[in-house]
Amino acid sequence: MRVIFTFDTYGTLIDWLGGVKETLKKLFNLEDETIDKFIQVWGEYDYRLVQSEYKPYREILMDGFKAALDRLEIPYTMEKLESLTLSIKEWPPFPDTTKNLLMLKKIGEIGIISNTDREFIQASISKMGVEFDHVVVAEDIKLYKPNPKVFHMASKIMDLDARSHWFHISSYHTYDIIPAKKSGLNIITVLLDRYGYAYQAGEYADYIFKSFDKLVYELGKMVSSKA
To answer: What is the mean predicted confidence (pLDDT) over 43-51?
Structure first.
């Protein structure tokens, strides 16, 4: 029986929120309230930009950051904007990431399906210290989530079929859980609810867990019962 666990990366495995906050404080000395506004504005731009015509995520990230800085009238130089963009390489994994990926790797293949570039994802994988069996990024397929076609393309790249037991795990309902379910593929959708999105993802998430440890334990039992 072939078992595959695929993951969203930023916000699910990598603590982008903590990484961005730390970088904003370091580069711009912003107050917490301003940082929260920045993240909200940037998030809105990012979601809109990834649904437009494809361009490298480095450009999307920089455009989104620039838009947020301009909207909030935060002074910046191009050097600081570049530093903010490249900080993605330094964003840390969540404390529970590495150990749980290693546990899942014992019972199946693990993979990444991420809205990013190869340059960035390799830096993040290095931070996690885990070897993934599959890495599918937007740079490869020239398409971003939440387009459901991303999952069809990932399925072909990973050479999956209807007999495969495919779990896709994310902390985001909009980018991952809903489009994975709407793809029509046989994907078991799992929300790792790091941000309180359970009430919005319930209709589309087959399983919801507040704890990564609990997620691994329960999925492990599920796989064992099917073996």
So the answer is: 96
